[in-house]
Amino acid sequence: MKHVELNVIENYSAVDTNPLSVYVMHPFWNFLVKFLPTWLAPNLITFTGFMFLVLNFLMLAFYDFDFTASSAGNQHVPSLVWVAAGIFNFLAYTLDGVDGKQARRTNSSTPLGELFDHGLDSWACIFFVATVYSIFGRGESGVGVVTLYYILWVVLFSFILSHWEKYNTGILFLPWGYDISQVTISLVYLVTAVVGVETWYQPVIFNLLYRDLFTFMIIGCSFTVTLPMSLYNVLKAYRSNTLKHSSLYEAFLPFLSPVLLFVLSTAWVVFSPSKILELQPRMYCLMVGTAFANVTCKLIVCQMSNTRCEPLTWLLLPMTVVVGGAVTRVFTNETLLLYLWTAAVILTHIHYGVSVVKQLSDHFSIFAFSLKKPSRD
């Protein structure tokens, strides 16, 4: 693992202009944080919120592993599960908003907190998308798994755009879509518990189904708001000579590994002899989302430490072998191969995260989940 150049770690700088966040959520979070004990570590709040999203993912995996439970004629996910999903999602969102305020309240803000927060957010993308997908499923009134796959990539690239901006400008511009989506989806889970998934079979207006509206909102927000704003901020820095890197080539370098990951994973989807995405959509998306989180975390470390982003992530090398072996039928059991590779990706990502957290904790003489100071004996 590449060591972080800790001597040049930058201060955290973020801009949040979303009206929902500024006028509603931040006052709400400022109110809530006053009730938290001052001994509670911000990173523990962050991790707890993340685990609520993981719990949602596992809970829906138990009741709807292959995303067919919402289809007509199938046994649907119990209403209480949707109630729990709505509560857990809003708790995760709330804790994600409160952790930074707790850090400032307890004077415990560190680069470790920034990495912990955004690193877990990058992994949370897949858990959030997969759980939402269970509302519609893959039946006639739902969304095909191939569409799910491309929607996941839209969400992933929307996430990395913000950190690409910070890598180039030194400022993290928080996307507007995040707050709106979290509040909306929390409500949709609760509504689903009351009215049932059958409600989403009906058209919103004319022949426009709810699934089409959700797809349009995700893609539309990404391509009409998130992407243009990110490009504008980076190009503005380039024209004003405030770009942190020497050329546009260096500026766009962080996209190389994510694009190659997209090419590799899409090649497996397109050329899979057994149609692996149709067979194992949940596991395949988990693998892609985790690999993407690993790539994103390395970008976050680079933009934190003001170091050059490495063009290629080593994880892509064994993945090239895996995908090549799958599409050429060298490995005949694609499902087994996917499960083994997914396990390898998850363990690799956890190892990377633990290693970086330990390194930062040792450097700053802090504990990751406690505000107590380590003994210097």
Automatic annotation (TrEMBL):
Q: What does this protein do?
A: Ethanolaminephosphotransferase that catalyzes the transfer of phosphoethanolamine (PE) from CDP-ethanolamine to lipid acceptors, the final step in the synthesis of PE via the 'Kennedy' pathway. PE is the second most abundant phospholipid of membranes in mammals and is involved in various membrane-related cellular processes. The enzyme is critical for the synthesis of several PE species and also catalyzes the synthesis of plasmanyl-PE, a lipid required for proper myelination and neurodevelopment, from 1-alkyl-2-acylglycerol.
Under the GO molecular function aspect, what terms does this record hold?
ethanolaminephosphotransferase activity; metal ion binding
The cofactors named for this UniProt entry are: Mg(2+); Mn(2+)
- Family per record: Belongs to the CDP-alcohol phosphatidyltransferase class-I family.
Q: Mention any Pfam family matching this sequence.
A: CDP-OH_P_transf
Q: Which residues form a coiled coil?
A: none
Question: Domain of life here?
Answer: Eukaryota
Question: What residues form the membrane-spanning segments?
Answer: 44-65, 77-95, 115-136, 143-160, 180-201, 213-231, 251-271, 283-301, 313-331, 336-354
Under PROSITE patterns, the record lists: CDP_ALCOHOL_P_TRANSF (PS00379)
This one is known as Ethanolaminephosphotransferase 1
The main enzyme category here is transferase
